[in-house]
Amino acid sequence: MSNRVVIVTGAARGLGAVVARHFHCNGYKVALADIAIDAAHTLAAELSADQETACAIELDVTRKADFEAARDALIGRWGHVDVLVNNAGASKVVPVMEITAEQFDQVIDINLRSVLFGCQVFGQYFADRGAGRIVNIASLAGQNGGSATGAHYAAAKGGAITLTKVFARDLAARGVTVNAISPGPLDLPIVHESVPADKLDTVIASIPVGRLGSADYVAQMALLLASGDAYFANGACWDVNGGLYMR
Ligand SMILES: NC(=O)c1ccc[n+]([C@@H]2O[C@H](COP(=O)([O-])OP(=O)(O)OC[C@H]3O[C@@H](n4cnc5c(N)ncnc54)[C@H](O)[C@@H]3O)[C@@H](O)[C@H]2O)c1
Questions:
Q1: List 153, 217, 231, 245, catalytic entry
Q2: Which class is domain 5-240?
Q3: Non-local CB neighbours of 246 within 8 Å, separated by 6+ positions
């Protein structure tokens, strides 16, 4: 068991839960930060019954104060934090011409303000320590515009990729790297819940490799970018999309 500590937002389910499991399996102490606190507690207890190496933290990524409280709580619990994975995200299917100001703000808040606040709070803390890793989970939609019913989500994810570069440049000289991972459609519950089966077949047929992406692989990439050796990978957007978008 190493003494490295990671905080993963949106870790109660989906990709965040897979990422949290991977870091834990690889010797990290893991904080599962989510608004779905009961589910986060359940997973934390499964990973570490005595909470020695995994804990749940109630955190709303739209609130900077929640990131600050989580940072302080983790320093109190485990002495330090080494890695932030900004994973929490959400969207609503709305045709671009019909998105209301409220819907736009909500999706921007969860997918973009979250990255700003996470990078501000943990970026500053990591810079003060002289070491740290931030991995922002973006999306293919942030690169290619996504679909006409997800403009707010695509705009937010595009912004997350841009913020990744800004923070990467700002923090690089102080031992902190910031990278984005940009997945295409993954084989995760949310995809099966939100896309009707016949439409999903069409989506899969459009992916050059002919199948949905693996959340495990995204988690492995996050783990790699979080390592101390990854100091030269900085400010990049790592594409994991089966060839849907090549640049
Ligand atoms: N699933 C995919 O195919 C896919 C593809 C590309 C990118 N992504 C990105 O991966 C990330 C995870 O997606 P997922 O598919 O696991 O989604 P999911 O809906 O299954 O899980 C999202 C998690 O985030 C939490 N969450 C939502 N709002 C929050 C908030 N305000 N504060 C804290 N936690 C909050 C939820 O409770 C949930 O546990 C997102 O950023 C998403 O945009 C997913």
A1: 153
A2: alpha beta
A3: 239
Q: What is the pLDDT of residues 14-42, one digit of tens each?
A: 999 999 999 999 999 999 999 999 999 99
Confidence of residue 194 (pLDDT cuts 50, 70, 90): confident
CA of 173 to the centre of ligand 1 (A): 31
List the domain boundaries for the chain. 5-240
Indicate if 245 belongs to the active site: no
Query: What b-and-e string marks burial along 224-237, b requiring 16 or more CB atoms within 10 Å of the CB?
Result: ebbeeeeeeebbbb
Residue 137 CA to ligand 1 center (angstroms) comes to: 9
Its sign, for the CA torsion 65, 67, 155, 10, is negative
Residue the block writes with tokens 């819907």: 103
